[in-house]
Write a structure and sequence with these properties.
Helices cover 44% and strands 8% of the residues. It is globular.
Length: 244
């Protein structure tokens, strides 16, 4: 990048700088409208999905409760949208602690035996020995993800977006994979372009391939793209392809 050229003026004074929001406001309005239209689409789909799936939710909850000890729902902290505020300070942005994104509580149907508080955060695999018999079926058809429709309504997630990761694993992957933190530019999702194109990840290389799909989605995100991914997701669930 070339060095900035000196600015000459008849008045030897620094011009007042407009707030960043005002400078970018006009250019960002179309993008803001598109972002809100995508958000409305995601909320509408989540609301309709919860109504239609309500009997299924009750049946799954009963099966989990009757076949294994522990709560019906599994709650876990995940890293969400990067909500850091852009503040003008000599052209720099500042943040006290870079967590990569806003932590939030993600909900799933419990598919494993309850873990102890001291257990480390680890990746789950398709043949994980901790998975219960009912949980194995739920995971095969992605039905354990249904409670995340509530996360969508609460504003933590969208239907479509990169899958959110656990904080400790997020920090590790950010150091291992170039551009990994760029996934946090959008709300995480229940399904996504990576999930309908690739299976479960068991290695860092698998995650790196999914990140490429995630960044491709972010580059071309739109209401139409979200709808297209939503319509392809049921086939992935039924045929048990892809991975969450």
């Amino acid at each position: 990048m070339s060095a900035p050229q000196p600015v000459t003026s008849f008045i030897d004074a620094r011009p007042a700088r407009a707030p960043l929001s005002l400078v970018r406001g006009a250019a960002q309005r179309p993008r803001d409208r598109e972002r809100w239209s995508r958000r409305v689409l995601n909320i509408a789909v989540a609301a309709v999905g919860l109504v239609l799936a309500f009997p299924v939710l009750l049946a799954i909850a009963a099966l989990i409760k009757l076949t294994s000890r522990g709560p019906v729902l599994f709650a876990q902290t995940r890293v969400g949208l990067d909500r850091r505020l852009l503040t003008y300070a000599g052209g720099n942005t500042r943040r006290h602690i870079d967590q990569g994104g806003q932590p939030f509580t993600m909900y799933k149907f419990r598919t494993m035996r309850p873990a102890g508080a001291e257990d480390p955060q680890t990746w789950a695999s398709p043949d994980d020995g901790r998975v219960t018999p009912v949980g194995r079926v739920l995971r095969q058809f992605r039905l354990d993800e249904l409670p995340q429709l509530f996360n969508v309504l609460m504003g933590d997630m969208n239907i479509v977006g990169p899958r959110p990761e656990q904080p400790t694993i997020f920090v590790y992957l950010r150091e291992q994979i170039e551009g990994y933190q760029r996934r946090q530019r959008v709300r995480p999702g229940i399904t996504g372009w990576a999930q309908i194109n690739q299976g479960y990840d068991t290695t860092v290389d698998d995650v790196a391939r999914k990140v490429r799909y995630d960044l491709e989605y972010i580059r071309r995100q739109s209401p139409f793209e979200d709808l297209r991914i939503m319509l392809r997701t049921p086939a992935v669930m039924v045929l048990r392809r892809g991975g969450w």
